[in-house]
Give the backbone structure.
Amino acid sequence: MGSLASFTPLFFVALWSTGFIGAKFGLPDAQPLTFLSLRYAIVLVLMGALAWATRAPWPRTAREWLHIGVSGLLVHAVYLGGVFIAIGHGLPAGVTALVVGLQPVLTALGAGALLGERVRPVQWLGLALGFVGVGLVVAHKVGAGASGDALLGMLLPVVVALLAITAGTLYQKRYCQSFDLRTGSVIQFLPSLVATLLVAGLTETLQVRWTGAFVFALAWLVLVLSLGAVSLLNVLIRSGSAVNVASLFYLVPPCTALIAWALFGETLTGLALLGMGVTVFGVWLARK
């Protein structure tokens, strides 16, 4: 069991990195928040049924419910909502990766003040190298797409997403790092569904084209991301320091680039390969 647990970070990175598959195949057929609302609703049905069938324990106090719900709002509704809105409006993937790539640095800054975690100099070096590596991986994509005022407008939701995933990680580590994954998922996704659907109803048409690609994307995001990767993220937050968990997000752009190269024939430059090496070394230092 211990040896299996040591692979949990790698499993998490591998699964989380496939999130772009859902965006690539799903967003052409549904607007971002409508897409996410469907995803959250299906997750609630599946996890609710699992919690009921297995008689999973629920939190005993209203305070526990509140903390778990707030962490879910930040990590799911605000973070994913911001990323999907940015991608749906055409923000280049490289810019998105770079902005969200600041999360480990912000988490390290907050971990000392909010959690009392001591970030050693070698970890700061690792975090810096990780960000440089991510920049090298996505450098050829940063210049593509929108520019000027349009790009600035697209940046706002992804900056909000960055702040949300950072705050959500720190909040969950401090206030609710221990909860049952089955019932906890229900409590996290319920307010996320309500908030996302409310905003979607005010800003989107709520129309969906049920193509084969959309159904595949929705199933992938529900089963692989929301049930698989999110459960692993909760386990990692429970068992490791906030900085260690956050540093794993540096590995997502390199892993995503490898998957996109293997599945879709996207360009993988020599600079990107160098960046992958720098990123892996930086994450190794940050997690020492």
